[in-house]
Amino acid sequence: MRFLLSLLPLLLLLHSLPYSAAARKHNPHNNPTNSSHLVRSSCSHASYPNLCIHSLSTYVGPANTPRDLAQAAVTVSLSRARRVSSYLAQLSNSDQGTKRELSALSACIDLMSESVDELTRTLDELKHLHAETFLFQMSNAQTWVSAALTDDDTCLDGFEELDVKVKADMKRKVTNAARVTSNALYLINRLDESRGRPRSKP
Known about the structure:
Layout: H1 2-26, H2 32-43, H3 49-57, H4 66-94, H5 99-127, H6 134-157, H7 167-189, H8 193-196
Helix pairs in contact: 2-3, 3-7, 4-5, 4-7, 5-6, 6-7
C-alpha cells in the first residue's frame, strides 16, 4: 500500500503530460509561425525593416501581439544602448586621444547614459499600460524614445569632425543602436487604442 501511495505523484504527473503538450501545441499564442508572421508584417514599413525582423526574430520572449512587439523592440534597443554605453566607458578609461577627442567621448557617454534611462522608462511604461491612461502613457513612451534617438544622433555628430582610430567601430555601434531605436519608435507609433489599449476591468 505504501508503495502504491509513493507512486501516486508520479502517475499523476505522467497522466498530465500529454494534455500539457497538447495544450501548448494548440495554443495560438505559442505558435512560432504566428509570431514570425506578425514580426514580418509589422516590420515591413519600419525605417530599417531587415534589422527590425532580425532583432525581433532572435528576441527571447513573448511577441504575439503589437504590444508585445513594441516591448520587445524597446528591450532590444535598451540592450544595444547599454552595450554601447559600456563600450564607450572602456574607451574613456584608456585615456587615449586628444583633449578634444576625450571631451567628445565624455559627452557621448553622457548622452548614451541618458538614452539608457529614457529607454528604461519607456519599457516600464509599456509594461504597465492602463486603459484609463493609455494615451498619456503612449505619449510618454513616444517622447522618451524620440529623445533616446536624438541622443544617439547627437553622440554621432560630436565625432564627425574628429579623426580617431576607433571612430569607425564606435560609429558602427552607435548607428546600429540608433537604427534599432528608430524601429522601436515605429512599432510604438503603430500601437493605437484598438490594438494596444488594455481592456478596462469590469
